[in-house]
Amino acid sequence: MSGDSSYSEGAGWIQWFCNMEDHQFLCEVDSDFIRDNFNLYGLKSKFNFYNEALDLILSSETPDDEDLEDERFLEVYQEATDLYGLIHARFIITAKGLALMKDKFLSGKFGACPRVLCDRSNVLPVGMSEELRTSRVKVFCPRCEEVYIPKKKCPDVDGAYFGCSFPSIFIMNFVQEIQIAPNSQQYVPRIFGFRVYKKKGSRYQDTLQKPAEITHYSEEQLKKLRGKNEQQSKEDYVQK
User: Fold this and answer.
1) Disulfide: which of 29, 153, 180, 236 matches 91 by Cβ 3.0-4.6 Å?
2) How confident is the prediction for the chain on average, in pLDDT?
3) SS3 158
4) Could you tell me which residues are beta bridge partners of residue 124?
5) Stretch 182-189: mean pLDDT, rounded?
6) What does residue 51 show for φ and ψ, rounded to 5 degrees?
7) Whole-angstrom distance, CA of residue 91 vs CA of residue 22
8) Nearest CA among 237, 119, 105 for reference residue 171
9) Distances (CA, A) of 182 to 85, 102, 118
């Protein structure tokens, strides 16, 4: 866990959590939104300490050093982190949530596309799964419509905190305001000036074979990822 545990007295857990290092992708969810049980439908069964985690999220106090050394508190804190993340994924597709994320997008808080021909177009956070602990948050470029690992990897931010649908909903709502430049340029590989595009040695050689469409991880991919995560957890435990 990173960040300053004494962020600000009385600021509240939500503000403290969103201002932690590497949490710049997150926005502050309204407490009224969190208190509305309709917005939390289906989440309770996912957590062992649901009520305690919810109380922590809505707390007007921030954790101190003594709290962060308590094992019981850390268990509740981890669940509060994931619970807030899943609530966050629902909030950012509301009118107010979209407006907050638009401000972050326009100011470049999510970073820029690493593709040279996108000319540093702003990107949006996206998850490759709606399930927790599948993969960390990725970024989506509206210009080239590709997904990348963010420059700042945000190790504590799960992709499920944003979900798979957020970028598309965002673009549909602000298509006139954000003015996405068309992706009119494509790099063409050459050898000594001769084009190899759609020829032997080019990945575009087979024009009849369409690339597979991926908008989220399939069930088969999820099983493989879970297996890798479980193996990594066992290795980390042995090392300890």
Assistant:
1) 29
2) 85
3) strand
4) 140
5) 81
6) -65, -45
7) 20
8) 105
9) 32, 19, 9
Give span(s): CATH 1.10.1820.10, the chain. Answer: 13-100
Segments of the chain assigned to CATH 2.20.25.20: 107-174
* Residue 7 identity (one-letter amino acid): Y
Following CA atoms 42, 44, 48, 50 in sequence, which dihedral angle do they give, to the nearest 10 degrees?
A: 150
Does residue 219 register a pLDDT over 80?
no
What residue has token string 């820029």? Answer: 112
Would the pTM count as exceeding 0.70?
Answer: yes
**What backbone phi and psi angles, to 5 degrees, belong to 99?**
-65, -40
Q: What is the third-level CATH fold of 107-174?
A: N-terminal domain of TfIIb (2.20.25)
**What CATH code would you report for 13-100?**
1.10.1820.10
C-alpha 221/C-alpha 216 separation (Å) is 9
- Enter the tokens of residue 223: 């099983």
* Two tokens, residue 187: 């790099």
**Which conformational region is residue 198 in: left (phi greater than 0), alpha (psi within -120 to 50 degrees), or beta?**
left
The pLDDT tens digits of the residues spanning 57-79 come to: 999 988 888 888 888 899 999 99
Listed residue (124, 127, 130) closest to 100, CA to CA: 124
CA distances from 101 to 91, 139, 173, 189, 203 (A): 10, 13, 12, 37, 36
